[in-house]
Amino acid sequence: MPQRTVLAVLFDGVQSLDVTGPLEVFAGAETCAPGSYRLRTASLDGAPVRTSSGLTLVPDAALAEEPDPHTLLVPGGAGTRRPDPRLTDWLRTHAPRAERLVSVCTGAVLLARAGLLDGRRATTHWAYCDTLARHHPAVDVDPDPVYVRDGHIATSAGVTCGIDLALALVEEDLDRRTALTVARHLVVFLRRPGNQAQFSAQLSAQTARREPLQEVQRYITEHPDADLSVEALAARATLSPRHFARAFQAETGVTPGRYVDRVRLEHARRLLEDTTDGVEEVSRASGYGTPEAMRRAFVKALGVAPAEYRRRFHPAPAP
After folding, report:
1. Active site (annotated) includes residue 129
2. Global confidence as pTM
3. Where does the record place a coiled coil (predicted)?
């Protein structure tokens, strides 16, 4: 098994979790499969850097001293807003030599400044997608996914999405079982596939302004198996069904039915990923009623049936 060197680029104003999150994943994989990864960090001059949270990171070396790595990890952070021109120049010259180029959060901005994302699909933290697209029109910016793969370049969304991407890379390099073992040791709540949206149903919808509608949102999340018809929810908000439906959509940006669908799908996915409950039990607990209703919802939203979805997270034991 070849050893893959992962080199993380450090600079003043870097987001510490963009660095430590992915490196902890690769370090965990190295523990599971000794000899699989060699982890290195480097700054422009080899000097310590101060992160955006005030922590000091001491690199292993200067960037000029490091040989071309297998995986070059470019984190984000406040330091990407006005980066040292020498860093952009180094990336432009040396990043293409890496077998795999990975950015976390606004690290994609550094790659774009160096011209490395031109003509490619990429993502970054949702708050900076518009800025990235506006300043770098040659980049095909997709604001929705957790991470995007385009050839040997992978870009991820905000902060913890770098962990999701690193887990996917470990699965690609080694195997699914190792990636899942690392995820469990890190107590990662949900190992998200790349095409999953950056936000959960609760975060992607706006929080209602009025307390009765906020209470309805909480109730839906906590009771996905309850009667969540418009009539039942309207009664909880003490509104007529028509008034409730209009007010809910106006304040959250989605219809009550769409919100319920998203919550139930996420609840079912978590149960399939994190428990051994049967498909029939999961369908009842998530409010679908029957396995067939849940199967239709999964195929429509994810393109895969519940049983196959579970196999992705719980592969059969090796013979």
Report:
1. no
2. 0.66
3. none
